Fold each of these.
Amino acid sequence: MKPWKTIATDGKWTLRQRDQEFMVQVDGKILMTSRRHGSEDELARIGCARVNSASPHVLIGGLGFGFTLRAALDNLPDSAKVVVSELSKHVVEWNRSGGELAKLHGDSLDDHRVSVEVGDVQKLLSKNRNAFDVVLLDIDNGPFAVTVEDNETMYSIGGLSSVRASLKKGGRLAVWSAGTHPGFNKRLREVGFVASVEKTGDGQHLVFIGDL
């Protein structure tokens, strides 16, 4: 097997490549790889399935390799608005047209429906009350975030309360998870969501759902 090759690095963020596969590391820890993305596609499909607006407003927390964004755009009308909140400016740069990752999602950041906000998604949520029809969260490993410091607060009672406040009546939260989290549905219910969970087609990952 070929070794990984570092193709970009900036501070604690590193992008590596092996053949057609990419990896992003933070402080040497693997944050994500591009090997499979079916569960990210399903996150977008499940999240957007409840949209009943002619011009839906969608927030995606976490750009990653752009797979969730691509799938969301494929499931949304031309009148939709999609805001992508990404903590790392380096990840955004690598995904822009001409960047190393743009080909993975067909230059989705150039779509007229898309805008990008670099920074903490929780701060963005706090500034947008009753704004979104759908919030899709694909941050770290999900409810048990382990890679980036402070990501776990997004899935706390406080973080989920911010999501709830940002959603319109009838809105939906969908959360990608690397695995099961027995207490997460209870946490969703505690902040006022109708909670459920779906297994993705790969049988390994989950999508937690919170409906209003």
Amino acid sequence: MGEAAAKLTRLVGSENRYDIAFEDVRAAQVEAMNERFQERKDAIKLVGHRARESNLTEIRSHEDAVQLLLPHTAYKSYPESFLSGEKWDRLGKWLDTVATYRVPPQDVASIHGIDDWVEKLEQGGHYVSCSSGTTGKSAMLVASKADMEWCKKEAVAAYSWGSGVKPAQDRIIFGMAPVAKVARNDATGEAYTAALQDPNFERFVYPVPPITVGGLTNMVVLRKSIADGTAKPEDIARYEATSAARQKAVDDAVGITAQALIEARANKLHVSGLWAGLYNVAKAVRDLGYSGKDFNADNSIYVGGGLKRAVLPDNYREFVYETFNIQPDRNYQNYSMQEMHSGMPRCQKGGRYHLPAWLVPLTLNKNGDELLPITKNEFEGRAAFFDLSIDGRWGGVISGDKISIDFSPCACGAKGPSVRDNVARYSDLEGDDKIGCAGTVDAYVRGVA
């Protein structure tokens, strides 16, 4: 990492990392983005392609940076036949188009499934994380060892700022959701354990097997084959059996987790999960005769994602908070996305998500091809960012999110840009989402791979 980017990322350990006005950091961000571009334009094939398309040789402004952003769909641009046909050599060649460091050819005959492919890549320093792919193909995101170390550092720093909890190894961590076993989740899990978990107690292990990259992608491939009528009966039967076994494990986990929480209720707890799982466990705790008055008043919580199509009572949030005695200043919320390695913790007073100085906001029009002018007041647009911390792939991404962003000081006092807690996906709002550059990016990647 060059010095311009390092000056900004070193702020991860600073208390004022969310308290720097955009105007005070604008020039430094442009310098750092250009530095990254000069380092990566010949290393990341897709970035080089975007630069040639735009006839850009350097980044002199935020407008220039927009022309080099990659749509989030770029990480889903591999042909599905590479997965369904287990063409690991072709999939590796595709991954090489978006990676900073060369992905070498692999011995295809020695690879037995996608989890084995991912493990062998990791042995060579390429850490692949995979999104859930609930609405289509999974995104495959390559990262470096340096990225894994950064995720450990940044996750705890953001949590501490947003929750007010100082890492003191004085809590028992209770995760209440099956975890996707991918490199980034493993890294942040290790970091939270090192920072928060009381060594005098064992961290609670949620009694449901983790979901592997193979499990995620196999589900996506099967869903596709069912839709086009090519799924084999034995594949469907195997999937249904696996799904039934997992559902039973999830159902059984509710009572097991509730009992463990009750036994640990006098200790400081950090609970995390998705709303559906948290609500179901909270209800089980209530059914056993316990509530907030029985739990430590210094407990903290982190909820990832939204409802994920779960149907819950209107007061589900309050029900969970009250059950585990979560005070407002211990409720950590964070806005981020798989394509970035840095988050935006929500402040307590303003209820807004705050950008650190190394995360460059590039709010675009709906089509994703034009930077919106910064106004004195909050304005809406398509979320796009340049994460200067990312090492193993390009840091500039156009998301599928519609956000409301403000560059003026927040009610909490922080002077950096902030995002209102009303983030929505264009695909949910309009049933479809088209990013202007996605087609040409997809065509290039498919042509190379």
Amino acid sequence: MGKLVVASQFNEAFNAALAERAPDVDFLTLPPGPPAGLPHTAQVLLAAPFRKAGGALPISPPRGWPFDLKWVQLISVGIDFYPDWLFDGPVVTSARGSSAVALAEFALAAVFGHAKRLPGIWINGYEMWAPTPLTLVEGRTLGLVGFGSIGEALAPRAQALGLKVLAVRRSDKAIDVPGVERVASLAELFERSDHVVLAAPATPETHHLIDRELLARAKPGLHLINIARGALIDDEALLEALDDGRVSQASLDVTHPEPLPPGHRYYSHPRVRLSPHTSVHTPDTRANLAAKFTDNLARFRDGRPLADVVDLARGY
């Protein structure tokens, strides 16, 4: 029997690192998108997103699932960047948890940036030498919309800084981080929180979850942080809340679409801190994904159940 063949849409450098972990596997590099030219010998596909946020997804192949694959490993957590037909074939697993710490740290950096008014307090001249009033992080309330791997990483770090943590989640699963208060509704979360972090997947149910009605309930001066998906926010509603001051700042690492078109108000709004979906770009994210993949690879070869199988209803 020949080597197991894995077709990967990662770059050559990452595939070489994977090959060091699994020297008895052949890794073939493919471009992102529908895997055209996939060799019939490939049993596994490491799939990169087929689109950016707001982009078009490829239509279903004319004869349905065309590939003789046994397993597809996504290199992202959410499934909204992939076509529905990708899930009509073999088992599909997600990268759940691989970027949780990177996202948690990014959210905390946004909290500190808001409280300490960074980078606005930096000065570059004698005439600017005047103190600026700042606020504390300790004693404030952080609300989490969604409580999966990101919430599990973020909550204890936030608590260590003296933040009170509230959370809402869709499932009935208990929140097992001590001290995190589960609240009954999004409205209550927004009414009580100084900072709100969006950490929910993009699904039809969460599309424009953050709308005018919800933002009208927000605690005055709310700081909104989005590290999940841009489609969770009704942009016009958020801009109105920023204009009238109900929301004091929006720290947005994700938008819909990506990139935003030239001239979009987020680029120039004084209360928006915009970054180009960069929060997960840390060395540990890829290292964690490599470890997750090689663990699942051992399961696959042993015939054991794979970890983090995608749940279409949950969106990851």
Amino acid sequence: MGINARVDMSTRGFVTEMPDSLRYAASTRVEFEVTGMMCARIPRSSRVLDIGCGTGSISSLVIAECNAKLVGIEPDPDRAEACRSRGIATVCGYYNDQTADELGAFDVIMFADVLEHVPDPVSLLERAAQHLTRTGCVIVSVPNVAHWTIRWSLLRGRFDYQPTGIMDATHLRWFTSRTADQVIAAAGLSVVEHDWTSGSWMSAYRRIPKRFRRVLLRALVRLAPHAFGCQHVVTARRAT
């Protein structure tokens, strides 16, 4: 059983079935979602480290779209093997001091929906900050717990975990705009851009026709990002 499979086992009692350990596998670049925003923020031909790369779905997009020289790191053996099967250089393990020193410096270090799954995000970000090139950056995406769907559930006295999404039962940390910036700053990084995804994939929007959905949601995110933003996407550099 893989490491993350054991983590998924910890969801017992919170969801009716154990989540599929390979459940996150975005395969296309979508504007105003994590895949599109990550690719848009990575300079071409950068050396990129994708921490918690999972099955390599976003890694493969970054390589194709940005001509990146990418290395993935993933603790779960099944996910790491899925990533390798895409032809991606993948380290199966954790991003600790030894691994960080062995891999060296990167132009971009990605945390695509990873920090919400770890008990100490600041230490992980600090290590990443120490292994950036002089002009390098960290790009983070994390779910927005202040999303209107969560607020509405709380008003009704509900905080129901789900197999995927903002309420993924494996999440250990919860982020608002303020806490996302606060955690990044605590790691000695300075936020240079903070945006929000639209979440057009969410079940709450399935009744809105697709031809209107993305335009409508982007307008709502611009109007009230803290309530309608699905995920925070933050770019940060070492503080001077």
